[in-house]
């Protein structure tokens, strides 16, 4: 079945759908992005750690008549990341879009936080994003086209209270977005890089961050917060631009969010 809305990265004169990778597609923003890309006619490769949630997501996405590769990957493990990209290459031999979405926060202060929590944030939010980006570029280079999108955060633009290492990890993502843009320009590449920086979005994030369902309810109940689909729409906007337009960052807050 042909794509519903032919995305701009569709190779001309072929029936091959564009291929997108979404990391962290087992819940929240990643799952919403995967659903949107499936509706827009992409074949998808999705990864995360929780096998049951990932399998459920893959079944749901396949109902859109697209091809889905679903692989459990712990992004703290480089060998698993490389296996995943090798599987994508073996299945399609091309890559059009990478969504670096997987990420997490731990409420662990700089004054007294646990090293393991800091390490996990840096490994997933920063290092894995770099590894996935490098591997994606090598799959995109033969066609000299593609689009990499980072799900960053408003916490990469200002420092909230008691953010520990989380905000630093997202400042790093902001820097890495511009660094990659500069590298791609220096290489005269047509590959594009975008970042989306959300404020509060209702997902599993707050419960994991606060280690409290009650605190998560408070976070998401204070005013109408963003939904994961709002971020998927922003990603779809960046992806739908013509080739001469590179959306560099989209800052997106709930209307009533102050900070
Ligand atoms: N929610 C917000 O308010 C908000 C605001 C700004 C930015 N963000 C960013 O949005 C992105 C998505 O978060 P979310 O809000 O959708 O939260 P979420 O529902 O907790 O989703 C996080 C995703 O990342 C995956 N992940 C975490 N650690 C992983 C690891 N070691 N290996 C593989 N996958 C891993 C999780 O999958 P598994 O647990 O199955 O591995 C899950 O699919 C993150 O980068 C976050 O920083 C969120």
TrEMBL record:
The protein's name in its UniProt record: Short-chain dehydrogenase
Superkingdom in the source lineage: Bacteria
Lineage: Bacteria, Bacillati, Cyanobacteriota, Cyanophyceae, Leptolyngbyales
Record's keyword terms, sorted: Oxidoreductase
Ranges in coiled-coil conformation: none
Record family assignment: Belongs to the short-chain dehydrogenases/reductases (SDR) family.
Stored PROSITE patterns: ADH_SHORT
Gene3D superfamilies: NAD(P)-binding Rossmann-like Domain
Gene Ontology MF annotations: oxidoreductase activity, acting on the CH-OH group of donors, NAD or NADP as acceptor
One Pfam family named in its UniProt record: adh_short
């Amino acid at each position: 079945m042909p794509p519903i809305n032919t995305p701009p990265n569709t190779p001309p004169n072929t029936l091959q759908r564009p291929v997108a990778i979404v990391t962290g597609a087992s819940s929240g923003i990643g799952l919403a992005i995967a659903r949107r890309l499936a509706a827009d006619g992409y074949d998808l490769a999705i990864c995360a750690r929780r096998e049951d949630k990932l399998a459920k997501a893959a079944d749901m996405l396949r109902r859109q008549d697209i091809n889905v590769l679903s692989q459990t990957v712990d992004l703290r493990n480089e060998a698993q990341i490389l296996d995943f990209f090798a599987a994508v290459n073996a299945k399609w031999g091309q890559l059009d879009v990478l969504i670096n979405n997987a990420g997490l926060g731990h409420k662990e202060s700089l004054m007294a936080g646990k090293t393991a929590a800091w390490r996990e944030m840096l490994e997933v939010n920063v290092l894995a994003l770099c590894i996935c980006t490098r591997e994606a570029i090598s799959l995109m280079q033969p066609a000299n086209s593609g689009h990499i999108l980072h799900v960053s955060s408003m916490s990469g633009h200002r420092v909230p209270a008691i953010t520990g290492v989380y905000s630093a990890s997202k400042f790093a993502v902001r820097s890495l977005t511009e660094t990659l843009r500069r590298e791609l320009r220096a290489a005269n590449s047509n590959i594009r890089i975008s970042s989306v920086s959300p404020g509060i979005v209702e997902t599993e994030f707050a419960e994991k961050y606060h280690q409290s369902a009650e605190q998560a309810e408070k976070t998401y109940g204070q005013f109408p917060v963003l939904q994961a689909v709002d971020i998927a729409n922003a990603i779809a906007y960046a992806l739908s631009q013509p080739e001469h337009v590179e959306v560099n960052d989209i800052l997106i807050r709930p209307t009533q969010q102050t900070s």
